[in-house]
Each structure stands twice: as C-alpha cells, then as structure tokens.
Amino acid sequence: MKITTVGGYEEVGRNMTAIEVGGDTFIIDMGIRLDRVMIHEDTDISKMGQRELIEKGIFPDISKVKGNVKAIILGHGHLDHIGAVAKLSRNYKSAPIIGTPYTMELIKHERRYAKIPNQLVTLEQGETIDITSKISIEFIRMTHSIPHSTMCAAHTPEGTLVYANDFKLDDTPVLGKKPDYDRLKQLGRDGVKALIVEAVSVSCEWRTPSEEIAQKLVEDTLLKSDPDSGVLLTTFSSQIARISSIVEIASRMGITPLLLGRSMEKYTSIAEKLKILDMPEGAHVYGDQKSIRRVLERVVKEGKEKYLPIVTGHQGEPDALLSKITAGKLPYKIKKDDQVIFSSGVIPNPINVANRYALETKMHMLGARIFKDAHVSGHASKEDHRDVLKMLKPENIIPCHGNLTMLASYAELAEEHGYSIDKDVYLRRNGQNIVL
Ligand SMILES: [Zn+2]
Fold first, then answer.
1. How many whole angstroms from 218 Cα to the centroid of ligand 1?
2. Cα–Cα distance, 234 to 236 (Å, whole number)
3. Which residues, listed in sequence order, are joined to residue 18 by a DSSP beta bridge?
4. How far is the CA of 197 from the centre of ligand 1 (A)?
5. Rounded to an integer, what distance in angstroms lies between the CA atom of residue 246 and that of residue 384?
6. pLDDT 10s digits, 121-134
7. Tens of pLDDT along 282-293?
8. Torsion sign (Cα): 165, 168, 169, 170
9. What's the 123 CA to ligand 1 centre distance in angstroms?
10. Is residue 367 within 8 Å of 143, Cβ to Cβ?
C-alpha cells in the first residue's frame, strides 16, 4: 500500500491523498486552499487554469499521483475537500466521483458552471461500493459541521485504511444521527492497517462540545436580545444544523428569519431539496444582489425588529454581505445599539484576523453591540482523537490536514498511545510517500 500525501499536509486546506494498491490508485478528497485565494486580489478561480492554480498554492499538486486512478472519493462537502474537483477531476475522466447525497448535490451544482466528465455516484452513510474487483469503499456515519459527513474505510488486499478527515464525535448533533461507534469498534477488532486522520484541533485539550451546545448559545443570545433594536446574525452557510436551529428559534420568537447571500442560497437550497432543512413558514432565502437589496428595503420599512437577517461574511470577507452592510452600502444600516451575533469562530489565518478586526472596529464605531463566538467547532479535539485511537487501534497513523506543528501535535498524542515517529506514525509534507 503506497500512500501519497498530495495536499493538506502543510496547511489547513487543499486536502488530497492518493492510495495505490496493486497498481490501482484511488484519490480521497480534492480540496482548495481558501486563504491563498484571498491573498490575490480579484482572484476568479473559474477563469484560472489548473497549472496556475497549483502554482499559486490554491490547488493540490497532482503531479505526484501515479497509477491507474479508479475512483475519486469525497468524505464530505467542505470546499477544502471538494473545491478542486470541478477542474482536477477531468485528469481522471474514467474515475467515478463518489460521495454522500449532500456532497454530490454540491458537485452537481458545480457541474452547472464547469464541465465534469466523470460519472457521479451517490453512496449513503453506512453503504459500501466496489471500485475494483479487489478494493471496496465504505462510508461510516460520522458527525462534522456539514450534512452527510463520513469516515471512509477502504478495504484492500493489503488491509483496511481509514480516512478520518474531517470529523467530530457528536452524540447530539441536532441534525442526523450520532457517529456509528459500533462499526468503528468492529473495524478495530478486524484490524486497521492505516489511519489517515485530521490534526486541525488536536492540541485543544478537551472534547469538542456538541452542536446542541451551539444551539443553546444561539438561543440564549437571541432570547436576551433587545426587542426594540435590530439583530443581525452571521454563520457558516454550510452549517445546516446551526441554520436549522437559528431559523427555528427565530420563528418561535415571532421574528421572520431571512437567509441572505449567494453561498447561503446554494447550501440551504440543497439542504431543503434533500429534506435535511425544514424552513419555517415565512422564512425566505435570497441569493442575488437585486433581491437582497429589495428585501432589505422592506425590512427597514416594516421595522428591523420584525426580522432576523442571517448573512454571509462572518470572517469579515470584504465582498460579503456583513461587510457591505457595515460599510453602509445596502438599505439596511447598522445604528446605535443594533446587535450583531457571530455564530462562528475566526478561522485562524492572518487575513481573516485582519478582516475581522477591520469589520468589528467599524461596527463599534457605529455603536453596534457585538456578540462573538455563539459557536462550537466541527473538528475533533485531543480527547476525541484519543477515543478514536482506542476504537480503531490502527497499526500505522498518518496525521493530515494541518501545518507541521498540528501534525506533530497529533504525533505526540500517538506517542502517548505507544506509537513512535517513523516506526508507525508518519509526518509527511505535500507530495511525499509512505509505503506500508
Ligand atoms: Zn470539513
């Protein structure tokens, strides 16, 4: 079994791993690195070729992927795992793209704008598919911060490989079911040859709290909000469980939730189509600028306190709605004592930190009241990782999704469980190999 660490082994973003067994290769994830998109002004990746995207560090460098690619597997639908599919999958035309329903609807959405020649295959959580006569892929039910997330188990003649990138262990996930612990334990009993595992939050010394806790934080903040002033809320567009909680709480309070922004429209309309998200009566989604402007005019006319706009832009992205509203570019203006709730954390890269600083400072100058961190993470912390190690008991471990500090933190955790670096836990950079 040869594992090529294509992308995501030096950074948070552009995840991609290739596994070769007996001459057949399969790829797991094909992601994008978003902070590298943001540092180049006016970057329109739809107009850039794959070579340029690879050179700028936005896409994973596929030049090291060898062998006959039999399948492209997508573990979940976040852009740092699927954002390069539309352009890179055409290098492996005969390989089907396999993902859960929510992930594959996102790929179909991409297909409206880009030619994706590959066959698209939908596999439910808990199901298994043969990709060759000797290799099968199993999707194990998992929780994260987007619907239909999985851990992937690849059953091969060289043993079983488990891909755990990304996940959290959430027993009360608000939407969907808790992780399939029985299956993980069974895999551990049967033998796991290798575990490829995310390292994003491994240095956080606790268990990542459940999404139910985030729901309570949002509820507590909203219920105590001043009913005479405006309330704006911002969160991750793909965090459908959170959005479901927010719209439910707002309608219970008699306020009409409005979901605003292009990505908000994309992710929530797919969730509605798949019956994952149940929108209360009166709630609406507006994606294009014209209708957003129109509905915000109505909000101002009828009274801000009657509506809860849920907008894009929690990282302070200058082009997103929250920044535009703060800059006074839309009919909805932030006035003194208006309340802005961030149901999100800051994704820790210097660009986001700077953007958020600028946004919050402008809001303060307008007299807004800011409520930060009504949020819990979607990534496993140290004690969750320990539980997974105990369940899976892998022979070999390859930490992924992080910079070297994050990967090394995972290696330290593995050492506490009897593993040793370069004997059975491997630290790799992008474009390297491990042969097991
Ligand atoms: Zn993710």
1. 21
2. 7
3. 4, 27
4. 12
5. 27
6. 999 999 999 999 99
7. 899 999 999 999
8. negative
9. 18
10. no
